[in-house]
Amino acid sequence: MNTEQETIIRVENLTVAYDETVIIDNISFEVHRGEVFIILGGSGCGKSTLLKQMIGLYAPAAGRILIDGDDIVSAEGSDRLRILRKIGVMYQSGALFGSMTLFENVRLPLEEFTNLNSSAMDLIVLMKLKQVGLKGFENHMPSELSGGMQKRAAIARAMVLDPRILFLDEPSAGLDPITSAELDQLIISLARNLRITFVIVTHELPSIYSIADRVIMLDKRVKKIVADGRPQDLRDKSDNQWVRQFFKREVALNGS
């Protein structure tokens, strides 16, 4: 899909370490507004770790993360809350509250972070559920929903405060191929119609080829980004043999 080359996220010289162990070493990249941007790589390369840094869960050892021009690393108090309002997050499990209906789950952020009246909140919740294809399921409990529906519900909750950016951690995990493809189409629709920027951690190649405008690929051996571009181009044209093998699902090199 076509996107304007306006930067909405800028990661500068980011280093992530736990104790003395460096996980990611001095990486920089940009995400463009309206883009479906995917972070991928082999097991243990730091994909989810990078996402957690980008949403402000942990502080990096060094570097800056700018969300729409504001540094989430150094921001504090009301400035930090203002930045966090620009993002929504869907965790791998969906993280819905099992004791609450679907409607109540999606409504919760509005109750916590806005002063809207009850009828306005209800209208927004119904609109978000309709956008993700869950109209009519408002009173269902999470346990009554399929895995794909739970992921959709989690996306609706992440969208309810109208963030500019959605971060998704392994959205297709545990889904069958058809349900995964349906979720891919939802992501494409939201990106195109609402100009939401998506940052997605995944290793599911069919989804990557289907939805990605651009990917970066982390390699745990060098702790850096070893590829940046369209997945089809990296598969066919990368000068890094391991990158080509990854995209073609070929036997990996020794030591990878």
Question: How would you portray this structure in words?
Answer:
The protein is globular, with a radius of gyration of 18 Å. It is of the alpha/beta class. The strands form two sheets. A six-stranded mixed sheet has the order 6-7-8-3-9-10, with helices on both faces. A four-stranded antiparallel sheet has the order 2-1-4-5, covered by helices on one side. It has helices at 47-54, 77-84, 102-113, 118-131, 147-159, 177-194, 205-211, 231-237, 241-248, and strands spanning 7-18, 21-32, 36-41, 62-67, 70-71, 87-90, 165-169, 197-201, 214-219, 224-229. The chain contains nine helices and ten strands. A hairpin with a 2-residue loop joins strand 1 and strand 2 (21-32). It has two domains: 7-86 and 163-247, P-loop containing nucleotide triphosphate hydrolases (Rossmann fold, 3-Layer(aba) Sandwich), CATH 3.40.50.300; 94-159, no CATH class.
